[in-house]
Amino acid sequence: MNKTPVIVDKGTSIDDIARIIVDAGMQHMVSGFIATTEGQYLGIANGHNLLTEITQRKQASLFHLAHYDQLTKLPNRVLFLDRLNVAIIQSDRQKTHVGLVFIDLDKFKHFNDSMGHSFGDELLIAVAERLVGCSREGETVARLSGDEFTILLDNVKSQRDLDILCNRILDAMKRPLQIMGREVFITVSIGSAMSPQDDDQSAGLLVKADAAMYEAKRSGRNAYRHYVPGMNLYSYERMTLETDLRMALERNEFELFYQPQVLLSTGKVVGNEALIRWRHPERGLLAPIHFIEIIEESGLIVPIGKWVIEEACRQQMIWMKSGLEPMCMSVNISAMQFYQSDFCEMVKSIVMESGIQPEHLELELTESVCMHDVISVLNPLQELHEFGIKLAIDDFGTGFSNLSYLNKFPIDRLKIDQSFIRNIDSEPVNIEIVRAIVALGRSMSLELVAEGVETDSEMNLAESCGCEFVQGYRFSKPLPADQLELWLNQFSAIQS
Ligand code: C2E
Ligand code: MG
Ligand code: MG
Fold it and tell me: Which residues of 328-344 are buried (b: 16+ CB within 10 A; e: fewer)?
């Protein structure tokens, strides 16, 4: 056995000491380690104690790794579910209630995709801090996964306690967050459920709070709902939808519908927007709201989006050959599709193979795409534009475009978001917004499209504000290709 004491400095890491002990076989040393700081004697320890200490610290750090989220330092799913189980058992004994709050960030994916992952990480950290700031001592704030957070309240007296907390969170999110030198506004959708009335099991309670959260999203986001029986249990639905979606492309279950765009000065249809639909074998025809987020988050948007471009170009060629007056085909592109390194090549080769003229294809990008770093967006945009393809910014006015960059991009059109057009006749502020967007667009020689025009009065106001193109139910809902052809015939007959 080694009897020579080993002198180590106090700052020596516990891992280094462990290595010394194990390497030298000193586990059984009775009094071997003398800790000093700058030569001053601090104490003596034996190999066995040190190893125990090391194991305990290792265990603590392993426990931390397994139970806490490393990014936000909040309890993770494992620890949260554990605490939830304990709370439910205790509340059963003490005849109290447990409250569960489920929080999901709205449009987090857009931030993450467009501003980069480190920005997304900082955003999550800032939101976590704000949530902790809203909660009281004894309430567990956890990060469940991605952009999902939960709060556990034991000892809840009534639903009112949950309502107060959730409204406090919605209020707190109204203040901007400071992320990497920028002011960012983000909203959340919140759902809550209570044990034992809504469910007396932790998994069930989680599903119900999640269902309430989805209901808040459906109501237009930035909202709070408490679970009520009969709400759809979306997380189950979502899981099955994702599985079905993985097969939908092979099974030919997607279809494109087309919505005409009218040039007001001539009253002619000058283009159509291709909008995807999913003919689900059991659920029937589904609009994008039911599945577009899932295909974006799962990455399925890349192959499905490619199919959309191919199908739209194929249809465009059919219409060109059929002798209809030339129209342009607009296709929606998700950020993730656009950032694929072969995106430009892919689009160009589809256009060439289909035989359509590049000028007859327009890609609709959202503002968030253009917020990504300018260079990586500018190059592909220029390449597509030089090839002849038209570019539009969709849902304009809802993101936060850096206006000084906008005129650097080779864009042809702005599509003014529906929310400004809807009720433009009853909400004067919308008129002001549309006028301002038109002025901005004109100063950059862009064409302006009003989206979501439903009534004559909305159409007239949009026109008086300077929108040259309109699209909306006032003319037609999106239709399958054959029905659109019939509609086009009738429409041109009425116009002439
Ligand atoms: P968007 O590109 O802004 O398309 C316009 C949406 O507004 C369409 O909904 C259309 O049916 C609807 N709309 C048009 N006129 C009116 C109106 O007068 N009143 C009302 N209330 N709604 C109107 P849809 O087809 O459900 O599509 C929703 C969104 O899904 C689209 O918004 C687009 O962002 C996305 N999307 C659709 N197809 C595709 C696709 O092939 N690829 C990608 N990446 N996204 C798609
Ligand atoms: Mg669009
Ligand atoms: Mg739009």
Answer: bbbbbbbbbbbbeeebb
CATH match of 7-57 with 3.90.1280: yes
Give the model confidence (pLDDT) of 394-405 as tens digits.
998 876 566 667
- What is the β-pairing status of strands 361-366 and 390-396? parallel
Residue range 71-229 forms a domain whose CATH class is alpha beta
The token duo for 493 is: 């007959």
**Band (176; pLDDT cuts 50, 70, 90):** very high
> Is this structure's pTM higher than 0.70?
no
Confidence of residue 1 (pLDDT cuts 50, 70, 90): very low
> Which residue puts its alpha carbon closest to atom 3 of ligand 1?
395
The yes-or-no verdict on residue 433 having pLDDT over 50 is: yes
**Which of 33-42, 179-188, 359-368 shows the lowest per-residue confidence on average (mean pLDDT)?**
33-42
Separation of 417 CA from ligand 3 center, angstroms? Answer: 6
Residue 145 clears pLDDT 60, i.e. is over it: yes
Tell me the pLDDT band of 31, cut-offs 50, 70 and 90: low
CATH of 240-495, one of 3.90.230.10, 3.30.420.40, 3.40.30.10, 3.20.20.450: 3.20.20.450
418 CA distance to ligand 1 middle (Å): 10
Report pLDDT for 2.
43
- Residue from 113, 275, 425, 457 to probe ligand 1 pocket by mutation (most atoms less than 8 Å from CB): 275
Q: What atom of ligand 1 comes closest to residue 474's alpha carbon?
A: 18
**Average of pLDDT values for 245-255?**
94
Q: Is the pLDDT of residue 140 over 90?
A: yes
What are the residue ranges spanned by the domains of the chain?
Answer: 7-57, 71-229, 240-495
